[in-house]
Amino acid sequence: MDVIISERVRARGAFLTSTIVKGAIIIKNRADILEHSRELIRKILSTFSIERLREHPILRAYRDFMWRLGIDPTKKRPSSEALIRRVLNKHEFPLKNNIIDSANLASAETLVPIGIYDLNKIRGKVTLRFAYTNEIFIDVATRKAENLSGKEIVLADENKVLHIFPHRDSALSAIDDIPGKVIDVFIIGAGVPGVPLSLVKKAVELTAKYLHTYANAKEISEVKVHR
After folding, report:
1. Mean pLDDT across the stretch 69-89?
2. pTM
């Protein structure tokens, strides 16, 4: 899938990597994912601390980018930082189903925010652009609609917002929590100045690898770079 980066967004230095994974099967409560998450919790607890988390150069880059947009990252955190903070605060890793878990595991391991979407719910071309004033966004967690201010950068298809860059996904393109359902998955990695392209590519590749391992996905497209 081609992704268009608007001139205004390109001028800010934001970029994406993406791939499509076909034939992923939604499965809940996989023991191997639970064990993987436990190992990751141990690694996070031994590597990071709440007090110094914001000093990490990768997380710092995402925070600085959000500040430059006029968005306070202490209130609306980059999604990868939010994951790490949850582990540090609660000593637990959020598990939903194998599709979402694969993205969260890869994001926590690379510190790169990852968006993961049901390809069948995306309509037409996809663009990374600034939001329109009062454009509607429906949050994946709360399912509530809100009006955007216009200072946010969003990933959108031809009729809806998929993602507020780089921290929140929409309910309208979310992965269904229906065990046994077979879906094609669109994965994006969010890049900003100060974060190596190689790391953002790795985050998407790792997500695809986990979908192969944990969701029996058979067809994985080459990772694309959009900038």
Report:
1. 94
2. 0.95
